[in-house]
Amino acid sequence: MFKLILLVGAGGFIGSVARFLGSRYITENFLSSFPFGTMTVNIIGCFLIGVFYGMSERGSLMSEEWRVFLTVGFCGGFTTFSSFASENLTLLRDGAFVYFLLYTGLSVFLGLAATFLGNALTKII
Fold it and tell me: Where are the domains of the chain?
């Protein structure tokens, strides 16, 4: 159990740093009040978790330790629901209702689609 906790912690650290750097890069290069950075990393994270779970479902492609490290640790640290919620609240407070609806709708739809796509790709490869 202690080994799994360390794996989750290490994956979470790497995922959080990757999220910070990726989101920051996108935000600095696409100046907008629309939260492209968080949305992009969340959709990428959804795709990756679909791939990782698809790989783990195929049996011998991934051990339990790697699955926990990559899904719970890395993807858990890489994606962020709290930033998503905070940015939506900011959009509402600023009266940016169209951005709020776009951000929420696109995040949910594209996130689910990316997860499905990532999982489906592991089935055909």
Answer: 2-124
